[in-house]
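Long-time lurker. I teach an intro course on protein structure, and each term I like to show students one example going from raw sequence to a predicted 3D structure in token notation. This year I'd like something fresh instead of my usual example. Would anyone be willing to generate the tokens for the chain below so I can use it in lecture? Attribution to the forum is fine with me.
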Amino acid sequence: MTSGHTVHVIGAGLAGLSAAVELTRRGAQVILHEATPRAGGRCRSYFDRTLGQTVDNGNHFVFSGNEAVRRYLGELGTADQLEGPAHADFAFHDLSDGSRWTLAVNDGPLPWWVFDARRRTPGTTLAEHLALARLALSRRGPATIADRVDSNGTFWDRVVDPMMLAVLNCPPSEGSAWLAWRFLRESFARGGRACRTMVAVPTLDAVFIDPALAWLRARQVPVHFGARLRDLKMDGDHVVALDFGAGPEAVGDAAVVLAVPPWVAQELIADLVVPDRFCAILNAHFACAPPPGARPITALIGGTAQWVVCHAGRISVTISGADDIIDLDREALAARIWKDIAATLGCEAPMPTYQIVKEKRATFAATPAQDARRPAARTRWRNLFLAGDWTQTGLPATIEGALRSGEAAAQLAEASWRG
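-- Reply from a regular --
Happy to contribute to a lecture. Here you go:
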């Protein structure tokens, strides 16, 4: 990118930060605008007075094979602050019958683990695992996971449903077969080294957000908080002005990367088609040290809780596709979740101090119909580009997708100057 070209990045969530870092790395003069008082968007950390701890709003997992995560954190110097197991071992507990097992994926790309009944989920067969290859036939279109994989029986209940619910954040029977395959192609299909479940330590902010802001400021990138974009002024095929509430400000030859939630983008661009169905995620945090020997992450089946994550001095739970319970009473929810935790971790203490975090529009619903509504990063305006996990990244709404979208917008901005 020719040095001196200006780019306004609107939004300092992960997509906006990714775009700002990549544009700056390529030599652009970036100006970052964020509507709220802080960066991070839906991936954030905060000090919770009830718990007396700094926590992430939820358990945001990444996989060891996520390439955009690796590039982004590598640039920031925080790649070594992702922690996870040495191997791709997934602990499960079925609350309905008390059974426990570990799905153990071998490190290499040849999936010999599916031939070993001791490494597979109990009650499942080799043929059922191999049937997942049918998802590879999927293209963008109307096919759901249930169109490709039998949605009845142990394999669905203990393998497909919990994994795909966590990835797609919508009922897997309704989930896009294409998005499911895109996820599998970049994780399990590459072997255990690519699908170890990693978490940011000590917090999301400390690994993904604060280092990005420090990196940008060290390169004299101005970051404006409390700067809500009110209007985009267009003239012909380009954006000519931005209005942050004090009247239109001409952008001249500058480019604009719009990295805001889809509903905000649609308010700014009236005819923009974006996802319009969203699914909730509910997280619960309990101020309680995990018992000695507890697994760092356990997937639950047959309860309210889905993923139990053990932190230092805290136990956290994530519930994806939580639309049916999101409006329930907080104390009643906490009691149900703690009952599941106690059964899984063997906690005998009364329910400790807790916090419930609700994200009603956590992600777009990863159905075929909603995926079809995801816009490309390029728009019909030559200097306007979109970023966000809701754009057409080819992945579900994930951290990896958000970071890739920022990279894609930066690359398009560069190409627009090169002609």
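Some talking points for your students: Residues 22 and 155 are 42 Å apart (CA to CA). The domain at 6-43+205-275+374-418 is CATH 3.50.50.60 (FAD/NAD(P)-binding domain).
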